Amino acid sequence: MNHGVEFRNITKRYGTDPSGPLAVKGVSFEVKKGTLTTILGPSGCGKTTVLRMIAGLESPTSGQIIMDGKNVTTLGPADRNVSMMFQSYALFPHMNVVENVMYGLKMSGVAKDEARARASDALKNVGLVGYNERLPSELSGGQQQRVALARALILEPAVLLFDEPLSNLDARLRREMREEIRTLQQRLGLTVAYVTHDQSEALAVSDLIIVMNDGLIAQSGSPQDMYERPESEFVAGFMGEAMLFPGTANTDGSVRLGPLEITPKQRVNAGAVKVAVRPEAWQINRDGAGVSGKLVKSSYLGSFFEYTFETVLGSIFVVSPDLTNVLPLGAQIGLALADHGVSVVRVA
Ligand SMILES: Nc1ncnc2c1ncn2[C@@H]1O[C@H](COP(=O)(O)OP(=O)(O)OP(=O)(O)O)[C@@H](O)[C@H]1O
Ligand SMILES: [Mg+2]
Q1: Is residue 164 part of a domain?
Q2: How many domains does the chain have?
Q3: Which atom number of ligand 1 is nearest to the Cα of residue 87?
Q4: Looking at the whole model, is its pTM more than 0.90?
Q5: What's 292's domain CATH number?
Q6: Please, which of 5, 69, 194, 268 could form a disulfide with 249 given CB 3.0 to 4.6 Å?
Q7: Which ligand sits nearest to residue 163's alpha carbon?
Q8: How does strand 24-31 pair with strand 159-163?
Q9: What's the rounded Cα separation, in Å, for the pair 60 and 64?
Q10: 208-247: pLDDT as tens digits
Protein backbone atom coordinates (compact mmCIF):
# COMPACT_ATOMS: atom_id res chain seq x y z
CA MET A 1 0.00 0.00 0.00
CA ASN A 2 2.58 2.38 1.19
CA HIS A 3 5.38 3.50 -1.09
CA GLY A 4 8.02 6.11 -1.65
CA VAL A 5 8.38 8.78 -4.30
CA GLU A 6 11.42 9.52 -6.42
CA PHE A 7 12.04 12.54 -8.65
CA ARG A 8 14.72 12.08 -11.31
CA ASN A 9 15.97 15.28 -12.80
CA ILE A 10 12.53 16.89 -13.07
CA THR A 11 12.00 20.20 -14.84
CA LYS A 12 8.76 22.10 -15.27
CA ARG A 13 7.89 24.94 -17.60
CA TYR A 14 4.37 26.36 -17.49
CA GLY A 15 2.68 27.29 -20.75
CA THR A 16 3.60 26.42 -24.30
CA ASP A 17 6.38 28.91 -25.02
CA PRO A 18 9.56 26.77 -25.22
CA SER A 19 11.70 29.80 -24.35
CA GLY A 20 9.65 30.54 -21.21
CA PRO A 21 11.30 30.31 -17.78
CA LEU A 22 11.48 27.02 -15.87
CA ALA A 23 9.57 26.96 -12.57
CA VAL A 24 11.50 23.81 -11.62
CA LYS A 25 15.01 23.56 -13.06
CA GLY A 26 16.10 19.94 -12.62
CA VAL A 27 15.51 18.44 -9.18
CA SER A 28 16.18 14.92 -7.95
CA PHE A 29 15.14 13.68 -4.53
CA GLU A 30 13.47 10.80 -2.75
CA VAL A 31 10.66 10.72 -0.22
CA LYS A 32 11.31 7.39 1.46
CA LYS A 33 8.46 5.09 2.36
CA GLY A 34 7.02 5.84 5.79
CA THR A 35 8.88 9.12 6.24
CA LEU A 36 7.97 12.78 6.30
CA THR A 37 9.92 14.99 3.92
CA THR A 38 9.53 18.73 4.01
CA ILE A 39 10.03 21.02 1.06
CA LEU A 40 11.02 24.39 2.42
CA GLY A 41 11.75 27.59 0.55
CA PRO A 42 10.69 31.16 -0.15
CA SER A 43 7.61 32.17 -2.07
CA GLY A 44 7.78 31.29 -5.77
CA CYS A 45 10.67 28.80 -5.50
CA GLY A 46 8.57 25.95 -6.92
CA LYS A 47 7.24 24.06 -3.85
CA THR A 48 3.60 23.81 -4.92
CA THR A 49 4.67 22.91 -8.46
CA VAL A 50 6.69 19.98 -7.07
CA LEU A 51 3.74 18.75 -4.97
CA ARG A 52 1.34 19.04 -7.89
CA MET A 53 3.70 16.97 -10.01
CA ILE A 54 3.78 14.28 -7.29
CA ALA A 55 -0.03 14.32 -7.29
CA GLY A 56 -0.21 14.12 -11.09
CA LEU A 57 -1.99 17.48 -11.31
CA GLU A 58 0.86 18.89 -13.43
CA SER A 59 3.13 16.95 -15.74
CA PRO A 60 6.87 17.52 -15.80
CA THR A 61 8.51 19.06 -18.87
CA SER A 62 11.34 16.52 -18.55
CA GLY A 63 12.55 13.91 -16.10
CA GLN A 64 10.89 10.95 -14.43
CA ILE A 65 8.71 10.34 -11.39
CA ILE A 66 8.96 6.89 -9.82
CA MET A 67 6.54 5.55 -7.21
CA ASP A 68 7.00 2.15 -5.67
CA GLY A 69 9.49 1.30 -8.39
CA LYS A 70 7.03 2.18 -11.17
CA ASN A 71 7.41 5.01 -13.63
CA VAL A 72 4.27 7.12 -13.10
CA THR A 73 5.46 10.23 -14.96
CA THR A 74 2.60 10.18 -17.46
CA LEU A 75 -0.14 8.83 -15.16
CA GLY A 76 -3.00 11.09 -14.05
CA PRO A 77 -4.00 11.77 -10.44
CA ALA A 78 -6.57 8.97 -10.37
CA ASP A 79 -3.92 6.36 -11.12
CA ARG A 80 -1.42 7.37 -8.43
CA ASN A 81 -2.95 6.64 -5.01
CA VAL A 82 -1.93 10.05 -3.73
CA SER A 83 -4.03 12.55 -1.85
CA MET A 84 -3.30 16.20 -1.35
CA MET A 85 -4.43 18.60 1.34
CA PHE A 86 -4.43 22.06 -0.15
CA GLN A 87 -3.62 25.22 1.70
CA SER A 88 -7.19 26.48 1.23
CA TYR A 89 -8.77 23.35 2.62
CA ALA A 90 -12.12 24.03 0.89
CA LEU A 91 -14.68 21.95 2.77
CA PHE A 92 -18.08 21.56 1.11
CA PRO A 93 -20.09 24.26 2.91
CA HIS A 94 -23.49 22.57 2.60
CA MET A 95 -22.30 19.20 3.99
CA ASN A 96 -21.79 18.55 7.67
CA VAL A 97 -18.48 17.35 9.10
CA VAL A 98 -18.97 13.63 8.73
CA GLU A 99 -20.41 14.01 5.21
CA ASN A 100 -17.38 16.04 4.19
CA VAL A 101 -15.05 13.33 5.43
CA MET A 102 -16.97 10.37 3.92
CA TYR A 103 -17.42 12.05 0.53
CA GLY A 104 -14.32 10.51 -1.08
CA LEU A 105 -15.25 7.01 0.09
CA LYS A 106 -18.79 7.35 -1.21
CA MET A 107 -17.44 8.48 -4.57
CA SER A 108 -15.28 5.38 -4.74
CA GLY A 109 -18.29 3.15 -4.16
CA VAL A 110 -18.07 2.33 -0.45
CA ALA A 111 -21.51 1.67 1.12
CA LYS A 112 -22.95 4.58 3.05
CA ASP A 113 -22.97 3.00 6.50
CA GLU A 114 -19.42 1.78 6.22
CA ALA A 115 -18.28 5.15 4.86
CA ARG A 116 -19.94 6.90 7.80
CA ALA A 117 -18.30 4.58 10.33
CA ARG A 118 -14.86 5.04 8.76
CA ALA A 119 -15.35 8.80 8.66
CA SER A 120 -16.11 8.83 12.39
CA ASP A 121 -12.94 6.86 13.00
CA ALA A 122 -10.88 9.25 10.90
CA LEU A 123 -12.31 12.19 12.86
CA LYS A 124 -11.33 10.49 16.13
CA ASN A 125 -7.84 10.05 14.69
CA VAL A 126 -7.47 13.81 14.30
CA GLY A 127 -8.97 14.46 17.73
CA LEU A 128 -12.29 15.87 16.57
CA VAL A 129 -15.08 14.11 18.44
CA GLY A 130 -18.62 15.37 18.92
CA TYR A 131 -18.73 17.68 15.88
CA ASN A 132 -20.00 15.22 13.26
CA GLU A 133 -23.30 16.97 12.60
CA ARG A 134 -21.96 20.54 12.43
CA LEU A 135 -21.56 22.54 9.26
CA PRO A 136 -18.06 23.87 8.42
CA SER A 137 -19.32 27.41 9.07
CA GLU A 138 -19.99 26.38 12.68
CA LEU A 139 -16.37 25.34 13.28
CA SER A 140 -13.23 27.27 14.16
CA GLY A 141 -10.42 27.47 11.59
CA GLY A 142 -8.42 24.83 13.44
CA GLN A 143 -11.39 22.46 13.60
CA GLN A 144 -12.00 22.94 9.87
CA GLN A 145 -8.37 22.12 9.23
CA ARG A 146 -8.79 18.88 11.21
CA VAL A 147 -11.79 17.96 9.09
CA ALA A 148 -9.71 18.54 5.96
CA LEU A 149 -6.97 16.37 7.44
CA ALA A 150 -9.43 13.55 8.21
CA ARG A 151 -10.76 13.85 4.67
CA ALA A 152 -7.26 13.45 3.24
CA LEU A 153 -6.43 10.52 5.56
CA ILE A 154 -9.58 8.49 5.06
CA LEU A 155 -8.64 7.45 1.54
CA GLU A 156 -5.54 5.80 3.03
CA PRO A 157 -3.37 7.09 0.24
CA ALA A 158 0.06 5.59 -0.30
CA VAL A 159 1.38 9.14 -0.38
CA LEU A 160 -0.07 12.13 1.41
CA LEU A 161 0.77 15.66 0.30
CA PHE A 162 0.36 18.80 2.38
CA ASP A 163 0.66 22.28 0.93
CA GLU A 164 1.16 24.69 3.84
CA PRO A 165 -1.59 22.97 5.82
CA LEU A 166 -1.24 25.12 8.93
CA SER A 167 -0.74 28.56 7.49
CA ASN A 168 -4.14 29.85 8.58
CA LEU A 169 -3.83 28.90 12.22
CA ASP A 170 -2.57 30.89 15.19
CA ALA A 171 0.81 30.02 16.66
CA ARG A 172 -0.45 27.69 19.37
CA LEU A 173 -2.84 25.70 17.18
CA ARG A 174 -0.15 25.48 14.56
CA ARG A 175 2.16 23.81 17.06
CA GLU A 176 -0.57 21.41 18.22
CA MET A 177 -1.57 20.47 14.69
CA ARG A 178 1.96 19.96 13.45
CA GLU A 179 2.57 17.58 16.38
CA GLU A 180 -0.64 15.77 15.53
CA ILE A 181 0.31 15.39 11.88
CA ARG A 182 3.72 14.06 12.87
CA THR A 183 2.27 11.63 15.43
CA LEU A 184 -0.29 10.35 12.96
CA GLN A 185 2.31 10.01 10.23
CA GLN A 186 4.53 7.95 12.53
CA ARG A 187 1.70 5.86 13.99
CA LEU A 188 0.27 4.95 10.58
CA GLY A 189 3.67 4.83 8.84
CA LEU A 190 2.48 7.30 6.19
CA THR A 191 4.65 8.61 3.40
CA VAL A 192 4.29 12.38 3.48
CA ALA A 193 5.61 15.31 1.46
CA TYR A 194 4.98 18.52 3.35
CA VAL A 195 5.39 22.03 1.98
CA THR A 196 5.98 24.99 4.25
CA HIS A 197 7.91 28.21 4.32
CA ASP A 198 8.18 28.12 8.11
CA GLN A 199 11.59 26.78 9.10
CA SER A 200 10.66 25.96 12.70
CA GLU A 201 7.74 23.86 11.45
CA ALA A 202 10.13 22.05 9.11
CA LEU A 203 12.64 21.42 11.90
CA ALA A 204 9.92 20.08 14.20
CA VAL A 205 8.22 17.53 11.96
CA SER A 206 10.67 16.29 9.34
CA ASP A 207 12.78 13.22 8.74
CA LEU A 208 14.33 15.03 5.79
CA ILE A 209 14.29 18.71 4.80
CA ILE A 210 14.75 19.81 1.20
CA VAL A 211 15.47 23.52 0.87
CA MET A 212 14.58 24.92 -2.53
CA ASN A 213 15.67 28.20 -4.03
CA ASP A 214 14.56 29.46 -7.41
CA GLY A 215 13.54 26.09 -8.89
CA LEU A 216 16.58 24.19 -7.59
CA ILE A 217 17.46 22.22 -4.47
CA ALA A 218 19.85 24.33 -2.41
CA GLN A 219 20.54 21.58 0.14
CA SER A 220 18.84 18.60 1.72
CA GLY A 221 19.46 16.72 4.95
CA SER A 222 18.17 15.93 8.41
CA PRO A 223 16.84 18.85 10.49
CA GLN A 224 20.08 18.86 12.49
CA ASP A 225 22.24 18.84 9.37
CA MET A 226 20.36 21.73 7.92
CA TYR A 227 20.48 23.79 11.08
CA GLU A 228 24.00 23.02 12.23
CA ARG A 229 25.74 22.58 8.88
CA PRO A 230 24.24 24.87 6.27
CA GLU A 231 26.43 24.77 3.17
CA SER A 232 25.55 28.12 1.72
CA GLU A 233 24.69 31.63 2.70
CA PHE A 234 21.16 31.06 1.43
CA VAL A 235 20.51 28.01 3.60
CA ALA A 236 22.15 29.57 6.66
CA GLY A 237 19.94 32.61 6.29
CA PHE A 238 16.82 30.59 5.65
CA MET A 239 17.21 28.00 8.43
CA GLY A 240 17.26 30.51 11.25
CA GLU A 241 18.15 34.10 11.80
CA ALA A 242 21.85 33.58 11.25
CA MET A 243 23.89 36.74 10.66
CA LEU A 244 26.85 36.56 8.32
CA PHE A 245 30.27 37.99 9.14
CA PRO A 246 33.30 38.16 6.86
CA GLY A 247 36.16 36.06 8.22
CA THR A 248 39.51 34.65 7.14
CA ALA A 249 40.41 30.98 7.04
CA ASN A 250 44.01 30.22 8.01
CA THR A 251 46.12 27.44 6.50
CA ASP A 252 45.73 25.38 9.71
CA GLY A 253 41.95 25.31 9.15
CA SER A 254 41.04 27.77 11.91
CA VAL A 255 38.99 30.81 11.07
CA ARG A 256 39.52 34.34 12.33
CA LEU A 257 36.50 36.52 12.97
CA GLY A 258 37.64 39.91 14.28
CA PRO A 259 39.37 39.16 17.61
CA LEU A 260 37.88 35.66 17.77
CA GLU A 261 39.32 32.43 16.48
CA ILE A 262 37.00 29.54 15.76
CA THR A 263 37.49 25.93 14.70
CA PRO A 264 34.96 25.10 12.00
CA LYS A 265 33.29 21.67 11.95
CA GLN A 266 34.10 21.23 8.27
CA ARG A 267 37.35 21.65 6.33
CA VAL A 268 37.76 25.07 4.75
CA ASN A 269 40.36 26.30 2.29
CA ALA A 270 42.51 29.26 3.32
CA GLY A 271 41.18 32.66 2.27
CA ALA A 272 38.09 34.78 2.68
CA VAL A 273 35.04 33.03 4.13
CA LYS A 274 31.70 33.95 5.64
CA VAL A 275 30.79 32.87 9.11
CA ALA A 276 27.09 32.34 9.88
CA VAL A 277 26.26 32.88 13.54
CA ARG A 278 22.85 32.29 15.11
CA PRO A 279 21.66 34.79 17.68
CA GLU A 280 21.70 32.19 20.47
CA ALA A 281 25.32 31.22 19.77
CA TRP A 282 26.71 34.46 21.22
CA GLN A 283 27.84 34.32 24.86
CA ILE A 284 27.88 37.54 26.81
CA ASN A 285 31.01 38.12 28.92
CA ARG A 286 30.67 40.81 31.54
CA ASP A 287 34.47 40.93 31.95
CA GLY A 288 34.69 42.14 28.33
CA ALA A 289 36.45 39.10 26.84
CA GLY A 290 35.81 38.62 23.13
CA VAL A 291 34.41 41.15 20.69
CA SER A 292 33.72 44.29 22.70
CA GLY A 293 30.23 45.63 22.35
CA LYS A 294 27.87 48.22 23.75
CA LEU A 295 24.19 47.42 24.33
CA VAL A 296 22.03 49.71 22.23
CA LYS A 297 18.68 47.88 22.11
CA SER A 298 16.93 45.46 24.43
CA SER A 299 13.54 43.70 24.29
CA TYR A 300 11.98 41.37 26.84
CA LEU A 301 10.18 38.42 25.20
CA GLY A 302 9.04 36.45 28.22
CA SER A 303 11.46 33.55 28.14
CA PHE A 304 14.45 35.42 26.70
CA PHE A 305 15.90 38.83 25.92
CA GLU A 306 16.79 40.15 22.50
CA TYR A 307 19.81 42.41 22.60
CA THR A 308 21.48 44.44 19.89
CA PHE A 309 25.13 45.40 20.44
CA GLU A 310 27.31 47.83 18.51
CA THR A 311 30.69 46.21 17.88
CA VAL A 312 33.70 46.44 15.56
CA LEU A 313 32.04 43.70 13.51
CA GLY A 314 28.97 45.90 13.07
CA SER A 315 25.71 45.57 14.88
CA ILE A 316 25.14 42.10 16.41
CA PHE A 317 21.78 40.61 17.33
CA VAL A 318 21.89 38.30 20.37
CA VAL A 319 19.26 36.13 22.06
CA SER A 320 19.95 35.68 25.77
CA PRO A 321 18.08 33.22 28.01
CA ASP A 322 19.46 34.94 31.15
CA LEU A 323 16.45 36.58 32.83
CA THR A 324 18.19 37.34 36.13
CA ASN A 325 21.24 39.37 35.15
CA VAL A 326 19.54 41.79 32.83
CA LEU A 327 21.86 44.20 31.04
CA PRO A 328 21.12 47.94 31.17
CA LEU A 329 21.27 49.96 27.94
CA GLY A 330 24.80 51.23 27.37
CA ALA A 331 26.39 48.22 29.11
CA GLN A 332 29.89 47.40 27.82
CA ILE A 333 30.45 43.67 27.45
CA GLY A 334 32.41 41.15 25.38
CA LEU A 335 30.89 38.62 22.99
CA ALA A 336 32.32 35.13 22.52
CA LEU A 337 31.01 32.19 20.53
CA ALA A 338 29.57 28.87 21.62
CA ASP A 339 30.57 25.82 19.58
CA HIS A 340 27.01 25.27 18.33
CA GLY A 341 25.14 27.60 16.01
CA VAL A 342 28.28 28.75 14.23
CA SER A 343 29.12 27.61 10.72
CA VAL A 344 31.44 28.61 7.96
CA VAL A 345 29.72 28.84 4.60
CA ARG A 346 31.03 29.15 1.06
CA VAL A 347 31.43 32.66 -0.19
CA ALA A 348 28.63 33.00 -2.74
N1 LIG B 1 -0.25 27.83 -13.45
C2 LIG B 1 0.87 28.54 -13.61
N3 LIG B 1 1.16 29.14 -14.78
C4 LIG B 1 2.31 29.84 -14.96
N5 LIG B 1 3.24 30.00 -14.02
C6 LIG B 1 3.01 29.44 -12.82
C7 LIG B 1 1.83 28.68 -12.54
N8 LIG B 1 1.89 28.25 -11.27
C9 LIG B 1 3.05 28.70 -10.77
N10 LIG B 1 3.74 29.42 -11.69
C11 LIG B 1 5.07 30.03 -11.50
O12 LIG B 1 5.99 29.02 -11.15
C13 LIG B 1 6.87 29.45 -10.12
C14 LIG B 1 6.78 28.52 -8.92
O15 LIG B 1 5.48 28.62 -8.37
P16 LIG B 1 4.99 27.74 -7.12
O17 LIG B 1 3.54 27.96 -6.98
O18 LIG B 1 5.45 26.35 -7.31
O19 LIG B 1 5.80 28.43 -5.93
P20 LIG B 1 5.76 28.16 -4.36
O21 LIG B 1 7.14 27.81 -3.95
O22 LIG B 1 4.68 27.19 -4.05
O23 LIG B 1 5.41 29.60 -3.76
P24 LIG B 1 4.47 30.05 -2.51
O25 LIG B 1 5.30 29.85 -1.28
O26 LIG B 1 4.23 31.49 -2.77
O27 LIG B 1 3.21 29.23 -2.54
C28 LIG B 1 6.48 30.89 -9.83
O29 LIG B 1 7.34 31.73 -10.54
C30 LIG B 1 5.07 31.01 -10.36
O31 LIG B 1 4.78 32.29 -10.78
MG1 LIG C 1 2.83 27.36 -3.01
Answers
A1: yes
A2: 2
A3: 27
A4: no
A5: 2.40.50.140
A6: 268
A7: 2
A8: unpaired
A9: 8
A10: 999 999 999 999 999 998 988 888 888 988 887 788 899 9
